[in-house]
Amino acid sequence: MILVLLVISTIALFLTFVYMHQSATRLLLTAIFGIALVVSLVLVVRNDSAHYGMEQVTTTKTTPLKSAGSNQMDLLMYQSVGTADKHRVYIYKQTTGQKKISHTTASTKITNQVKRTTGTTKLVTKTTRWTYKSNAAKFWFGIADNDHELISRHNTFYIKKHWVVLSTTQAKKLSTLAKQQAKTLKSRAKVYVGNEVKAAMMKNPSLSKSQLAKLEKAAAAKFQAQAMQSMIQQVKTSH
């Protein structure tokens, strides 16, 4: 509405100054329309440059966080924006069965942070926007279409200690490496589990079948975790 007032006062000032004869009425109207023009112009500039009539409002949203990778590994992925890796777009899921992955937005107003937690994995998003202080302010300046203008957004990913953070390139390399070494790792795992079982039976020959089964399962899981960690380090250090 302030822009409408600016246009009307400009036209009225022009018509009054050009077409009216010199008189007290002309001077009065010229002063009124001139003041209206100056005031509306100043307010438009202040609204645009200093967000006059507006205030900052921050909202916090918590979103469930699930792995963007396979069921074998809890994974948070990111895509670097630019060559210096100063900005990242993080890729994740909100539910396990989610088909289309979610991602953050690439913008200088948006920052991301990854924190380790012993609690629930989640994404906490704090968003700060400009909003009008009142309906009157929105009535006068809302035509500028700057209500709820984004100031900043900070995404904090809370992930547990065992989660892995990889770039999309590293994740692809890891997948390829795991397929290439699948047969080798399978044979090595068999040997590793066998050695663990033999060592345990030497210490306690009276182990039951159920105890041996638990031992084999634990040894296989341990080997798999160590092998995966080794491959992760390999893709992280490779160029």
Please supply descriptive tags for the structure shown above.
4-stranded mixed β-sheet, 3 domains, rod-shaped, DUF4811 domain-containing protein, transmembrane helix, alpha/beta, 239 residues, 49% helix, transmembrane, 6 helices, membrane
Overview of this protein structure:
The chain is α/β, with parallel strands linked by helices. The chain has 3 domains: 2-50; 56-165, no CATH class; 181-237. It has helices spanning 2-19, 24-50, 135-141, 168-180, 182-203, 209-237; strands at residues 54-64, 75-81, 87-92, 102-103, 110-116, 122-132, 149-159, 164-167. It has a 4-stranded mixed beta sheet. It has a 4-stranded mixed beta sheet with strand order 4-3-2-8. Helix 1 packs antiparallel against helix 2 (24-50), helix 4 (168-180) packs across helix 6 (209-237) and helix 5 crosses helix 6 (209-237). It is rod-shaped, with a radius of gyration of 33 Å. It comes from Lactiplantibacillus songbeiensis. This is DUF4811 domain-containing protein. The chain crosses the membrane at residues 28-45.
Secondary structure layout plus pairing:
Layout: H1 2-19, H2 24-50, E1 54-64, E2 75-81, E3 87-92, E4 102-103, E5 110-116, E6 122-132, H3 135-141, E7 149-159, E8 164-167, H4 168-180, H5 182-203, H6 209-237
Parallel strand pairs: 2-8, 5-7
Antiparallel strand pairs: 1-6, 2-3, 3-4, 6-7
